[in-house]
Specification:
By secondary structure, the protein is α+β, with helices and mostly antiparallel strands. The chain has one domain: Galactose-binding lectin (Jelly Rolls), CATH 2.60.120.430. 17% of the residues lie in helices and 38% in strands. It is globular and about 60 Å long. This is DOMON domain-containing protein.
């Protein structure tokens, strides 16, 4: 009885953080596509051995992610993504908006970011998603004054804020959803119960 309770608690803990993936490693999910963006875009670019979205953006240009269905975003507090760029001396400025409401003010990305690194960013979108069903549009704006090629990967809505940070290309990022850790803990618990 105790062992079943432990396994149930591990499974509940492993699935507690809700995520809704938009794009990861060259694959769009949940009906999302990159549509009607204002820059030249490739959704299958290769960048440091990863398949990513590559887009050239100027100030006030943006990348759109759309799905054909209206989505309940109320469980999600954050939009998270990995972003990188190569222009030395450029402090990349980004902002995010959710939905087709043109009066909606974009939320600035305030995470510290570094050029030629993998930057894991979390943007608090709870003011845009609280207790509401939003239209299907996710828009990431460029706010600095330079023209830049920007690389995006692992774009998702999350319920909880994971580990933000700046990583080198040779360093594995933390798996913010904890899936690998959960499976390891579950495996060890099952192994322990078998003894």
């Amino acid at each position: 009885m105790i062992s079943e309770t432990i396994i149930a608690l591990i499974i509940i803990g492993c699935t507690a953080n809700k995520e809704r993936i938009i794009y990861k490693d060259g694959v769009f999910s949940n009906g999302y596509q990159a549509k009607e963006s204002t820059g030249y875009i490739s959704t299958t670019a290769e960048y440091h051995d990863q398949i990513v979205i590559s887009i050239i953006l100027s100030k006030n240009n943006y990348i759109n992610f759309k799905t054909n269905s209206v989505t309940d975003l109320s469980p999600y507090k954050y939009l998270s993504f990995v972003v990188s760029w190569e222009q030395e001396g450029v402090n990349l400025g980004l902002a995010v908006s959710i939905g087709n409401d043109d009066s909606m003010k974009p939320i600035q990305v305030t995470s510290g970011m570094a050029v030629n690194r993998l930057n894991r960013v979390y943007v608090d979108i709870s003011s845009l998603t609280a207790n509401s069903t939003k239209d299907s549009l996710v828009r990431i704006f460029k706010t600095d004054k330079t023209d830049s090629t920007i690389y995006f990967n692992d774009i998702k809505f999350t319920e909880e804020k994971g580990t933000e940070g700046i990583y080198s290309f040779s360093t594995d990022m933390d798996e913010t959803d904890g899936t690998k850790t959960c499976f390891i803990v579950l495996f060890i618990a099952l192994l322990f119960m078998a003894l």
